[in-house]
Structures are given as C-alpha cells and as structure tokens.
Design a protein that fits this description.
It is a single chain. This protein has about 290 residues and is mainly α. The chain has one domain. Helix content is about 85%, strand content about 0%. It is built from three helices and no strands. The longest helix is centred in the middle third of the chain and has 236 residues. The radius of gyration is 52 Å and the shape is flat. It starts with a helix and ends in a 24-residue tail after the last helix.
Length: about 290
C-alpha cells in the first residue's frame, strides 16, 4: 500500500509551480500602437533605404580607392611640406628667441617689478584699507537689497511662469513627447533594420552581378581560349609557322652558300693570315723589358 501511495504524492511540487508562470499579456508589453506602427514603417524604410545603401556602398568603394591611392599620399606629402615650412621654423623660433626672452622677463619680474610692488603696497596700505571698508559697507547694502529683490522676483516668476510651464509639460507636452518618442524609436529601428537588409541585398546584387559577368564574359572567353584558340594556335604553329621558319632558314642557308660561291668564283679563295709563332725565343734572342 505504501509503494502505491508514494507515486501519487510526487506530482504535487509540479502542480504548485504552475501558478508561478507569467501571464500571457506580459509577452507584448509595448501595446497595439507600437505594433501597428512598426511593420509599415519598416517596410517603407526598407524601400527608401535600399537605393541609398547601394549608392552608399558604391561611394564607399570609390572613397576607399581614392583615399588609398590619391588622398593618403597627397596628405603625407602636404604634412611633410607643412612640417618643413612651419613646424621646423616655429621650433627654431621658440628655442632660440622666445625661450631666452621669457627667461629675461622672469629676471625682470623677480628683481624689478616685485620690489616696486611691495613698496607700493606698504605706502598705500592705510588708504586701501579705508576704501575697502567703505566698499564693503556699500556692497553689503547692495547685497541686502539684491537679495530682497531676488526673492520677490523668484516668487513672481514661480507663480507666473514656472507653475504654468510645469502644468503644460505634465499634462500636454509629456504625453505628446512619449508618443513622438515611440514613433521616432520605431522609425529609427526600422531604418536600422532596413539599412542592414539593404546591405544584404546590395551584397547579394554584387555577387549576382559578379557571377553573371563571370559566366557571360570570363567563362566563355576562357572556354574559347582553351577549346578553340589554343588548338588553332598549335595547328597554325605546327602546320604554318614552323614549316615557314624551317623553309626560311633553308632559303637563308642556300642564299648564303650561293653568295659564297659567287664570291669565290669572282675573287678566288680568300687569303688566310700567316701563322705567328707566339712562343718565347730561346738562347741569345730571348726577350727583355728593353725590347
């Protein structure tokens, strides 16, 4: 009996955990307004952004080419020219003119202006103290009047301006701002999704155009080169060019031989130079440095 009761008591924790699941209405907390705005805005944004993304990718490719091969070398050349024409003269001016002048002014301030200032302070201290007291009294009176006036202006501005502005913001502008925020957020999300989707479409269009170009132009040209032009070239080389070259060489040899025969018949055999004995003489006729 105990063995039969235990399997019936085990499913109780699963029954207790079921009420902890979230209600169905929490899956869509944004509301019907957001859902109604999102889909048409994203479709419209995709249709608007697609040509812009295609144009953007083309301009980006052109800009990268111009930057790599034109603007960057020109920028480096201009930077080097500015360094030579401006930075180097300014550094020389700072080191050899402004720095010694600044040191001279600091000696003048320490040894001339500072003692003169101390002497003037000692002489004018009583007069300055009396004037300072008078100015302090006048400033205190003006500050008291300004404080009272500021308090009055504060309460006047609070009643006439701040409270109406707060009411306008709380009851009119804030709800409108929330609605506009939802609309602008959805438009931004739609533009982002459309931009990414347009990028995928642009890359797909590029791949399709590349594939079409390869299959329409490159592959037929490669096939024609391999299957037509190469065998035709080999045939022309073996049947026309190589026999023509051999015939030309044979004709050249025959013409040379004929010219040699004619020259030999007219002028006879050419004289060969007498052999010269280049060996060192022996005995008394041995060569020296003098002759």
């Amino acid at each position: 009996m105990d063995m039969q009761k235990q399997p019936q008591q085990r499913p109780q924790p699963q029954q207790r955990s079921q009420p902890q699941s979230q209600p169905r209405y929490s899956q869509n907390p944004e509301g019907c307004l957001v859902v109604a705005i999102r889909i048409p805005v994203r479709i419209l944004a995709f249709l608007v952004v697609l040509p812009v993304r295609l144009l953007w990718d083309a301009l980006a490719a052109v800009a990268r080419f111009l930057w790599r091969y034109l603007l960057a070398p020109a920028g480096r050349a201009v930077g080097l020219l500015l360094h030579v024409l401006l930075v180097v003269p300014l550094v020389w001016l700072y080191r050899h003119l402004l720095t010694p002048l600044g040191h001279a002014l600091l000696w003048l301030h320490a040894r001339v202006l500072t003692p003169i200032g101390h002497a003037l302070v000692r002489l004018l201290a009583p007069v300055v103290a009396a004037v300072a007291k008078a100015v302090a009294l006048v400033a205190a009176a003006i500050a008291w009047l300004a404080e009272k006036l500021a308090v009055g202006l504060y309460w006047t501005a609070r009643v006439l301006l701040v409270l109406p502005a707060l009411a306008l913001w709380r009851w009119v502008l804030a709800p409108v701002a929330r609605v506009l925020g939802v609309v602008l957020r959805e438009i931004g999300d739609a533009l982002g999704h459309a931009w990414r989707a347009a990028g995928y479409v642009a890359r797909a269009v590029g791949r399709v155009l590349g594939t079409l170009f390869r299959w329409i132009f490159l592959e037929p040209a490669r096939w024609a080169y391999r299957t037509v032009l190469t065998p035709v070239g080999h045939v022309v080389r073996d049947l026309v060019l190589r026999p023509a070259a051999q015939a030309a060489r044979a004709i050249g040899r025959a013409v040379g031989q004929a010219r040699a025969d004619v020259r030999r018949a007219l002028f006879g055999e050419p004289r060969r130079p007498a052999p010269v004995d280049r060996r060192e003489p022996r005995g008394r006729d041995t060569r020296t440095l003098d002759g």
